[in-house]
Design goal:
Blueprint lengths: L3 H9 L6 E4 L5 H9 L6 E5 L2 H13 L6 E5 L13 E5 L3 H10 L1 H4 L4 E5 L4 H10 L2 E11 L2 E10 L8 H6 L1 H6 L4 H21 L6 H21 L1
Parallel strand pairs: 1-2, 1-4, 2-3, 4-5
Antiparallel strand pairs: 5-7, 6-7
The structure holds S-adenosylmethionine.
Length: 231
Amino acid sequence: MLSPRLNMIKKAIVPGESIADIGTDHALLLQDLALEGQEEKTLIGTDLNSEPLKKAQEHLKEKGLENRVQLRQGDGLNPLAPAEVQGVVIAGLGGLEIKRIFEESKEKAKTFETFYLLPHQQAAQLREYIFDNGFTLFAEDLAKEKDHFYFLLIGKPGQEKREWTQTELELGPLLLEKKHPMLPPFIKKRMKDFQRILKKIEKTGDSPCQQMLVLEQKIEEYGEVLEWLLK
Ligand SMILES: C[S@@+](CC[C@H](N)C(=O)[O-])C[C@H]1O[C@@H](n2cnc3c(N)ncnc32)[C@H](O)[C@@H]1O
């Protein structure tokens, strides 16, 4: 069984779409797609490091899938040819690392149809990058696994002309539009984080600083969004 995080990606993938999973590690997502896929779509797993690929190969062998999933070593999109697959998954890396991967293969990235991006942190920076660099975000999802919330950003090549506020970048404009049911618990958790940091700063006894003002403003803004979501 896939974890809630990987299951969220699997549910979003268009059935029959050929997929490359960048930073595949254990290749769990690809195994699942291979086992369920009726069609013989191309499945490619890549990883920067050889150790995860060795393990992935063993897992695939155990399930008799070693000829069904291609494994390749390399950084980011480098192991893929332009337009080789329709969908590209990048999950479990930081938003800034995913941004770097795009930046280094910008032209190639535009030859793929769909991106399924699941940063383990820095989702706001990744959204901003997508909006500013010729990609459109057309769907979003949010899942909780253990104590952590994971954003799924689904994008495609094509510039979108729209301005986003910082709060939209942080919370996900499409999740806000849909009033996604996981947003209230996510916002409550973030507000608690902000309050904890604020208390810590207050304890030091320093005079009010810029960081405190920013945190207080964030708590207020998030509180207003929460109220609107729960209306
Ligand atoms: C935390 S695991 C994530 C595994 C899986 N994608 C998931 O979400 O469960 C990150 C994997 O990405 C690989 N990785 C890190 N940077 C990479 C890069 N620039 N290109 C390809 N793979 C990378 C690591 O070797 C590791 O196996």
